[in-house]
Write a structure and sequence with these properties.
Blueprint (H helix, E strand, L loop, with lengths): L9 H16 L5 H8 L3 H13 L3 E3 L6 E3 L1 H11 L2 H17 L3 E8 L2 E8 L20 H9 L2 H12 L4 H17 L2 E3 L7 E9 L5 E10 L10 H16 L5 H4 L1
Antiparallel strand pairs: 1-2, 3-4, 3-7, 5-6, 6-7
InterPro entries: GAF-like_dom_sf (IPR029016), HTH_MetabolicPath_Reg (IPR050707), Tscrpt_reg_IclR_C (IPR014757), Tscrpt_reg_IclR_N (IPR005471), WH-like_DNA-bd_sf (IPR036388), WH_DNA-bd_sf (IPR036390)
Organism: Aliibacillus thermotolerans
Keywords: DNA-binding, Transcription, Transcription regulation
Amino acid sequence: MTTNKNSGIQSLYTGWKIIETIKNHGRPLKFTEIQKITNINKSNLYKYIHSLLELKLVYRNKADGTYSLGSKLVEYGMAAIGQEDVIARVEPYLLELNQESQCTALFVTWTQEGPIVARIAAESRGLNIGAQIGTSLPLRSSSGKIFYTFMPSNVIFDWLTKEYDHLKESERTALQNEREDIKKLQIAFAEEPLVPGVSSASVPIFNYKKDLLGALTLVGFTRDVPSQVDEAISQKLISTSEELSHGFGYENEVYQQ
């Protein structure tokens, strides 16, 4: 690596210039647009972008070839500012859910590469699931099912395509059928999707535009996690989801009556 006259690492400045260019334009950019704006020669720009992709600082949409900010930047941003108002509002509810159940409580948000854990509450009781902030969650998790159900299909296209590659046709069909129940009941369940004996349940959080902000998730030993909508913990999750969504301006039939 070369250094500039101020003893800074020039390559680092150049990489950051690419990230800043994408951020400042507020939309995904094509390679040619980035090259024109940054004036970096094509050969070097390919190398920089390849490295940024490897580090998940930049994301490439396979459908149209455009580049946007990557999941690692989302993770770092959430750590730095608490995902603005959302984390601050959600955290007390996570603590309450953790205290009232035998489960670890998570808040899961969306990135271009799929759902990731944004907050964890396991201070009182709860299984140490080995997850940390920034951990990616798969489609077959209850959190994954929430995003599969309520996020726009064009947003989840790349992630869903990648997840489908790991599933049998029968598993895909089962998920598609289950999605209708999730829409109706506003809760998703996943019995031991990743680790034997560990299950989860999740509910969506919406804002005033009816956009999905994230998922509240309980994870624990299968015996402690609800699997039916009429269980007490399920009803607690659903009521918490409704209260939080209402606080973000979401209007549904329950609150309109």
